[in-house]
Write a structure and sequence with these properties.
The protein is of the alpha/beta class. The protein has two domains: about 100 residues, Beta-Lactamase, CATH 3.30.450; about 240 residues, P-loop containing nucleotide triphosphate hydrolases (Rossmann fold). The strands form two sheets. The chain has a seven-stranded mixed sheet with strand order 9-8-10-11-7-12-13, with helices on both faces. A six-stranded antiparallel sheet has the order 3-2-1-6-5-4. The N and C termini lie far apart (about 65 Å).
Length: about 350
């Protein structure tokens, strides 16, 4: 275990976000989204099997052997916590471990917009943090919870698989429940959570219709529900939610969603000129205009509502990337690579802006 922990310590000290271990190949770190091979002995089968046995939580060992892949959290004192996925390839164990910082950064340190602070302070409704894998959704969600924890007296219950960030009670009472350890499943936990007197419910990820139906029920009864969703932009999130449901259920769900959704915050990670990374955000607030578009099933008009909704706290990816370039944080090339509409953003860099009718603005 000494060598294994030394690898993890080196990863943390070197700024790696992920560690990959596979039998017979170099240990790989992911640093600023680039894969880098590390000079150390290649893991062999006996060593890897010993690591797998020692780091797997006792309550997951039977499931590990049956399913050949599990998620769990692994903590090393003095080094940190790692969200761990253990899986097999070609009959051999592999590890993919993501470093989870012990202390959640401030909004300013993480590059979070002021609008996200406002969203975190919503009294009720559903708030979704969306984006692709590895874009920092969990970190943004954790920062929102820490902000609430530091400033409001609330009862927060989190449902996670596995627990990533660990929260200490500050102004809030925070109870973190891990699937497999503290509850049988997300569905089982969601069935009982409203009886536990929460003000705020955090669901690690929206995965299916059952999860989202429970979230809407909680929001309907005055609770704030925070969760994540795998989508590439804010407007697409509404369609993704509807895809959870059968065709004959979608109209009712869409109308219910129009009444319970508070905001969608979608993010993409960008490489900075300083050699690090910073998020770009797209934010959709459920304004009367957005609510009406959802009720009338005019979802194709949501991007335009976001683009013109700056006064309500909304921003699209092109606008966010334009701001990052103007602030000197991101290159034009990087911004164009991450833009939803590169052609429009390129025109913006030249000082040309279009209105909804594609007319040039003065």
């Amino acid at each position: 275990m000494e060598i294994f922990h030394r690898i993890l310590k080196t990863a943390v000290e070197g700024g790696a976000s992920d560690v990959h271990l596979k039998i017979g190949t170099p240990v790989i770190f992911r640093i600023n989204r680039q894969l880098i091979a590390i000079e150390c002995p290649h893991p062999n089968e006996a060593w890897m099997n010993n690591i797998v046995q020692q780091i797997t939580p006792a309550h997951l060992r039977e499931r590990r052997d049956d399913e050949r892949e599990i998620d769990f959290s692994y903590f090393v004192p003095g080094i940190g916590r790692f969200r761990t996925n253990l899986f097999q390839q070609r009959g051999q164990w592999c590890l993919a471990m993501r470093y989870v910082k012990t202390v959640v950064g401030s909004f300013q340190e993480l590059g979070l917009l002021e609008q996200i602070r406002d969203v975190a302070e919503s009294p009720r409704g559903i708030v979704l943090i969306a984006g692709s894998t590895g874009c920092g959704k969990s970190t943004t969600l954790a920062a929102m919870i820490e902000h609430i924890n530091a400033n409001f007296k609330k009862h927060i219950i989190t449902l996670e698989d596995p627990i990533e960030y660990v929260f200490e009670d500050n102004q809030c009472v925070v109870e973190q429940r891990e699937v497999g350890l503290d509850t049988l499943s997300f569905h089982h936990a969601l069935k009982h959570v409203l009886r536990q007197d929460p003000d705020i419910i955090m669901i690690g990820e929206m995965r299916d219709s059952i999860s989202f139906t429970a979230a809407m029920s909680a929001a309907d009864t005055g609770h704030l529900v925070l969760s994540t969703l795998h989508t590439t932009n804010a407007a697409q999130s509404v369609s993704r939610i509807l895809d959870f449901f059968k065709a004959d259920e979608r109209e009712q769900i869409r109308r219910q969603l129009a009444g319970t959704l508070q905001a969608v915050v979608c993010q993409r990670m960008t490489n900075t000129l300083a050699g690090g990374m910073t998020p770009a955000f797209e934010i959709m607030i459920n304004t009367p205009t957005v609510k009406k578009l959802m009720e009338e099933n005019r979802l194709d008009k949501l991007p335009a509502a976001i683009e013109t909704g700056n006064d309500d706290g909304m921003i699209n990816f092109n606008q966010a990337l334009f701001n990052l370039v103007k602030e000197g944080k991101v290159s034009e090339k990087e911004a164009l690579a991450k833009a939803s509409n590169p052609q429009a953003l390129e025109m913006n860099f030249k000082g040309i802006f279009l209105d909804e009718g594609r007319r040039i603005l003065a």
